[in-house]
Every structure is written in C-alpha cells, then in structure tokens.
C-alpha cells in the first residue's frame, strides 16, 4: 500500500507539476509566428527535462531512463519505421482516392517550424515514456507502466474524444506501438524519430496530420469520401488504415522483442 501511494504521488506531482510550470511560464512576445511557436514548444520541453532531473535525483539516480542508447542504430531504425508507418498509410489512402494533394503553399522559416515539431516530439516522449514510465515499470511491471503511460498520452490528446471512437483508438494504438519500439530498442531515440516524422512530414509537409492550429503545411491535402477510411475532420489520424498500421507495427515490435529475449 505504501508503494502504491508513493508511486501515485510521484506520478501526480510530476505530471501536474509540469503542467503548472508550463502554464505559468510566459512565452516571449514576438511578431514572428515561427519564433513564437518555437518558444511555445521549447518551454514545455525544458520544463519536462527539469522535472525529470529533479525526480531522478530524488530517486538517487536509481531509475534507468533509457534516453539515448545506440543513437545511430536507433535513428536509422526510427527513420525506417516512421517512413513505413506514414508512407504506407498515405499510399493506401491515395490509391483508394480518400486523399489527394491539391497545390502547395509558401512557408517562411520552414526549418524552424520543423525544428519546433521536433522539440514537441521530444517533449511528448520524455514526458510520457521517460522518467514516469521507467519509474512505474521499476516499481511494478511493464503492464502497469504501459497502461498509465498510454492513459497519460491519450489524456494529452483529449481532442480526439470529440471526434469519435476511431481517432481515440488511433491515439491509444499509436502510444502502444511507440511503447513497443521503446521496449525493443531500450531507448527513446527511435520513438522520438518516429513521432517527429509523423508530425513533421505528416503535418507540416503533407498537411495530413493535425498539430496546433498555427502550424503551416507545405502541401494542401484534400480529404474526401467515407470518413472511416479517410479520417474526415481528423485527417489521416482518424483513418482505419492508420489503426491497422498501428496494430501491425505494434505486434511486429512485440514479437521482435520476444524473439530477441528468447535468444539471449
């Protein structure tokens, strides 16, 4: 009972403390939308890094955070996996006529928008699958850690609940898929790369993924047809094709980890 109370208090203090910190820290005033967005993403990242260091030190550095193991291997794996995840989804939806590209836009400081999306991906992964995940796993087991981290990730994407069951299932299975990658690689590098490719390429380049409203998109992706297939107002994130891709990739990494562990 004592352990349950302690873990619950740590989880609550970490997540709520981070949220309060983000809400009270001011975003520097700037006329540039790209620069404003950069600061809006950087402050939450610095906050979660700060809380991670504080709680890690409180735990006397006993929690292995698995942040940057095998960086080159995991960057390559993340790029390949992310390209398959987004690429296959877009190709299938294109071939079925659910999506098509209609024109492009000029984006000032595209590199900074992409970098901001990268910062956001790092922040989300460190928040959900960093200290909290490893602390819960260390005190209980992987099942409890997965359930709580997936719940937090889904809560952080609460807008999906307004769009229906399929977008919610996609958020949940996306979290499970990326957690499976974390467990297989024992590093946050590949999950961060995968997350960034989905947001950076899927949203800012292709215009098929929803980010904060001020993020621009290079191409205009037109969504049409049945919303179950196309994703409707949620764009491709609400598509059943993405749900199947999430499940396939999740099971693939789960089986790969089981096979590797069996051979050890």
From TrEMBL:
Supply the InterPro entries for this chain: Rce1/LyrA-like_dom
Keywords (A to Z) from UniProt: Hydrolase, Membrane, Metalloprotease, Protease, Transmembrane, Transmembrane helix
- Transmembrane stretches, by residue range? 35-59, 71-98, 110-128, 140-158, 164-182, 189-212, 236-256
Q: Which PANTHER family match?
A: MEMBRANE-ASSOCIATED PROTEASE-RELATED, PROTEASE
- Out of the domains of life, which is the source? Bacteria
Q: Where is the CAAX prenyl protease 2/Lysostaphin resistance protein A-like domain?
A: 108-200
Q: What is this protein called?
A: CPBP family intramembrane metalloprotease
Instruction: Cite a single GO BP annotation.
Output: proteolysis
What Gene Ontology terms describe what this protein does at the molecular function level? Answer: endopeptidase activity; metallopeptidase activity
Phylogenetic classification of the source organism: Bacteria, Bacillati, Bacillota, Clostridia, Lachnospirales
């Amino acid at each position: 009972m004592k352990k349950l109370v302690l873990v619950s208090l740590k989880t609550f203090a970490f997540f709520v403390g981070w949220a309060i910190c983000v809400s009270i820290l001011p975003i520097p005033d700037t006329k540039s939308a790209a620069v404003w967005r950069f600061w809006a993403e950087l402050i939450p990242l610095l906050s979660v890094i700060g809380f991670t260091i504080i709680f890690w030190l409180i735990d006397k550095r006993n929690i292995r955070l698995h942040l940057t193991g095998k960086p080159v291997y995991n960057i390559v794996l993340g790029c390949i996996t992310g390209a398959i995840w987004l690429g296959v989804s877009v190709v299938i939806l294109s071939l079925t006529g659910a999506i098509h590209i209609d024109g492009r836009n000029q984006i000032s400081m595209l590199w900074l928008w992409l970098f901001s999306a990268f910062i956001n991906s790092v922040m989300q992964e460190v928040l959900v699958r960093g200290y909290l995940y490893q602390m819960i796993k260390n005190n209980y087991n992987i099942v409890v850690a997965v359930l709580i981290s997936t719940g937090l990730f889904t809560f952080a994407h609460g807008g999906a609940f307004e769009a229906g069951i399929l977008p919610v299932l996609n958020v949940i299975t996306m979290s499970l898929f990326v957690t499976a990658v974390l467990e297989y690689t024992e590093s946050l590098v590949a999950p961060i790369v995968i997350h960034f490719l989905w947001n950076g390429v899927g949203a800012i380049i292709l215009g098929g993924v929803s980010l904060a409203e001020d993020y621009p998109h290079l191409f205009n992706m037109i969504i049409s047809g049945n919303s179950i297939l196309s994703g409707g107002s949620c764009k491709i994130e609400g598509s059943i094709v993405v749900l199947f891709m999430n499940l396939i990739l999740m099971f693939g990494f789960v089986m790969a980890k089981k096979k590797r562990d069996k051979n050890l």
